[in-house]
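Whiteboard transcription, Tuesday session. T.W. wrote the C-alpha cells on the left side:
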C-alpha cells in the first residue's frame, strides 16, 4: 500500500514496483472521479471516492490472483487525512474500513520530491505538504501494519521499496 501527500510519487512508485515484480497495481480512484466531475469537490464526494477506491481495489485483488503482489495507490488512511484536513471531519464509514482492511506493508512517501503542478492538486507550499506528511506518519505510528518511509530521488525511493518488499519474503 502506497500512501502520502499529493505529488510525492505514489503513482510512479506503484507503477515501478509492478513493473519490477511483474505484477499489478491499482490506481487512485479519486483522480478518475475528479477528472470527470464538474466544479470543485464537496465533503460528500469523499465518501463516494472512498467507496469507489475500495471497489477498484477489490477488482484488482480478484484480477491479481496468481500474481506475487498487488501494489495499491491510496487507501482509507488517505481518505481520512483528506477529509479531516479539508473539512475537519471524516465519515464513520471510512474509519470503519481502516479498521477492517488488512495490508502487508505501508510505504509512506515523503515530501522531498519537487511538487508538480496538476489541475487536481491543491497544496504546493512546503509547509502544508510537510504538515500533511506528519499527519500520515502519525497514522502509521498508531496502527499495527509494518511501514517504511520512502524518501529520496525516484531511483532511491524505488530501491527502498523493492528492498522492503523483498524483506517481507524472508
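and on the right, the sequence the group agreed on:
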Amino acid at each position: 500500500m502506497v500512501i502520502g501527500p499529493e505529488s510525492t510519487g505514489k503513482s510512479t512508485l506503484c507503477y515501478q514496483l509492478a513493473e519490477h515484480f511483474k505484477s499489478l497495481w491499482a490506481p487512485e480512484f479519486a483522480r478518475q472521479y475528479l477528472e470527470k466531475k464538474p466544479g470543485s469537490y464537496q465533503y460528500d464526494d469523499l465518501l463516494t471516492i472512498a467507496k469507489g477506491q475500495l471497489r477498484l481495489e477489490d477488482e484488482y485483488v480478484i484480477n491479481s490472483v496468481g500474481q506475487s503482489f498487488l501494489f495499491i495507490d491510496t487507501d482509507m488512511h488517505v481518505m481520512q487525512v483528506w477529509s479531516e484536513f479539508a473539512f475537519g471531519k471524516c465519515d464513520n464509514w471510512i474509519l470503519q474500513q481502516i479498521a477492517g482492511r488488512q495490508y502487508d506493508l505501508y510505504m509512506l512517501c515523503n515530501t522531498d520530491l519537487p511538487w508538480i503542478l496538476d489541475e487536481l492538486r491543491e497544496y504546493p507550499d512546503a509547509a502544508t505538504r510537510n504538515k500533511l506528511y506528519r499527519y500520515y506518519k502519525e497514522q502509521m505510528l498508531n496502527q499495527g501494519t509494518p511501514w517504511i518511509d520512502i524518501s529520496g530521488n525516484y531511483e532511491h525511493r524505488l530501491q527502498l521499496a523493492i528492498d522492503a518488499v523483498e524483506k517481507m519474503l524472508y
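Someone added at the bottom: The radius of gyration is 15 Å.
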